[in-house]
Amino acid sequence: MGTGHQLKENGNPGRISKENRDKIKNSRTEGRRYTSEVKNHLEGVTKSKPSNGKKTNTVPQVNHKCRTTNGNSHPLDLFPSGERLKELDMAYEGAMDLLRILDEDGVNRTFQSCRSVDEFQYLYRIDEGSFGTIHGAKDRRTGEMVALKQLKKINEMEGFSIAARRELGILLKMRHPNIVAGRGIASSSGNEHVFIVMELVDYDLKTFMQTMKENKQMFSVEHVKCLMTQLLSAVQHLHNHHVIHRDLKTHNILLSNEGVLKVADSGMAREYEFSPRQYTPDVVTRWYRAPELLLLSKEYSAPVDMWSVGCIFAELITLRPLFPGRCELDQIIKIFVDLGTPSDTIWPGYSALPMVRDIVFNDYPPGGLRKKISRNLLSEDGLSLLQDLLIYDPARRTTAAAALEHPYFKEQPVAMEPAMFLKSPAR
Q1: Stretch 22-39: mean pLDDT, rounded?
Q2: Which residues contact 44 (CB under 8 A, 6 or more apart)?
Q3: Which domains, and CATH codes, for the chain?
Q4: What average pLDDT does this structure show over 366-377?
Q5: Contact partners, residue 106, CB within 8 Å, separation at least 6
Q6: How many CA within 13 A on the CB side of residue 193?
Q7: Among 12, 103, 173, 235, which is least packed, fewest CB within 10 Å?
Q8: Into which family does the record put it (predicted)?
Q9: How far lies 315's CA from each of 18, 213, 377, in Å?
C-alpha cells in the first residue's frame, strides 16, 4: 500500500464515481435532503383532503395554548401543531411530550407563565448559534441574572424549528444540578420574538481553559476528576432519560463561580431508542465527533456522546484538542493515527460503513494516545478510562454510569469538592 489514502471504486484504487466523490466531499447532503423531505411532507399534510372535501384529522389535535392574562395567544402556538408533528416519525416524540406536559389539566406546571421580554434588561451578547442568539440579562422583577436565548424562526409560515421545540422539551424534563436549567419562556409584543429563559452561568469551559493556557497553568488531577465526575453525571442523567446531547464540547460546558459544571445548549439534542436507529450523521462539532458519524453511519445512539466525553477528558488534561482535524477526512486520519486503523475484528460492521467502502485507509498501529499524554499527566488507570471512552465499536464503548465507577476516580488523589475548584491553585 502506498503512503496516501486511496479512493476505491469496485475494488480499483484511485478511481471513484461522481456519486461517491460528492458523498465524501459533502457529508451534510443527507441532512439537507432530510430537511427538504420534512418540509415537503409538512406541506403535503397541510394540503391533503379526503374525497368529501374536508381536511383529514386522523390524529387528535393537541391544544397547546397556554392561558394568558391578556387573552393573547401563547408563543408556543408559533410551533408546528400536534397533528403535524405526529405526521412525522418517532424523531418528534420529544416535541409531543412537551405538548402533553403543557396541556396537563390545562396548566403549564414547569414554566408557570409566559412573560414579556420587557421584564428583562438586556446587558450583553453571550453567543450566537444556528438555533438562536443568547444574551445575558437581568430579571427586573427579581433582580436575578439570567440568559435569554432568542429562538430563530424557519419562516413565518412554519414558525420555529423542530430543534427549538426539542430544546424546550428537554429543558422542561431535565432537572439535574449539572445541566443548565430552563426558567421559563418570554416573548415580545405579538409573539414576534420568543425566548427561552435559562439560568446564567459564569464561564464556558473553552474560554476558561484558553485563559489558563495563556497564563501557563494546567489543571491538577483533582481539578480534572472534579470536572469529569460532574460531566459524566450530567451525561448519565441525559442517557437515563433517553436523550442524546449530540454536541458535547468544551464551548457547551459551563462553569460557575462555585465550581459547578453545567452542560448547556440542547439545540442538537434529541430523544432516542435503546437500539440504534437512523438519524442524520451531520451532528457533533468535528473535533468531538465519533468515528461512526465521521464514516457517515446513520445508525447511532448514546455512545456518540461518550466519544465526545473522551475527547473533552483528554483536553482537560493537556489543554489542547485531542483530534483537531481540518476537515472530516483529516479528522478520521488523525483518529486512526493515534488509535490505530480499525477493522471488522475490533469493530463489527466497520467495512460496510459508507466512507470505508469508498476509501482505502493506511494501516496505522494503535498506541498513539500514550505518546500524546505522558504518565506525569495521566496515570495508567486514567489512560484506561480514556481508552474505554474512545473504543471504536459503539456497542463496546463505555457508558457514563460505568465510567463513574472506573478505578481512576478511586485512586489518589481523588476529585476535589466543586466549592474548592476556583480556590485551589492550578499546576
Answers
A1: 45
A2: none
A3: 62-200 (3.30.200.20), 203-420 (1.10.510.10)
A4: 92
A5: 67
A6: 12
A7: 12
A8: Belongs to the protein kinase superfamily. CMGC Ser/Thr protein kinase family. CDC2/CDKX subfamily.
A9: 38, 12, 11
